[in-house]
Amino acid sequence: MVLGRDGGALPLLWPLFQMGFGGTVGSGSQWISWIHVDDAARMAAWLLTSPDLDGVYNATAPHPTRMREFTRTLADALRRPHLTHVPGAALRLVLGRRATLVLDGQRVLPTRALDLGFPFAFPTLHEAFRNFL
Which residues are in coiled coils (predicted)? Predict the structure, then answer.
């Protein structure tokens, strides 16, 4: 999930959290692999300008998180409560098969980028959210 101020999931989530309706979706234990939009752009430039780098690189932050932690960190950053819970069944009723995008997590690490020394400006959710607010 690419996190940006002007696109992606955050502009959709912010109003809900600011109104006090932020909370966990599904079990909360599903993994979310995310990256700050600036780190994603810098990683793409790094890969394109380094001819000795080839192969597959995971463009994710080095610290994936669980849904529960993601929503709690966002609520804390906005100084809003983390009270609601959207059951997976309810999300499936509304979104159908697309609910799997939220309910089925993936834990992906940028192992190759880290091994080669890529410097993440926003390695943690706290740092990413602080940059947006």
Answer: none
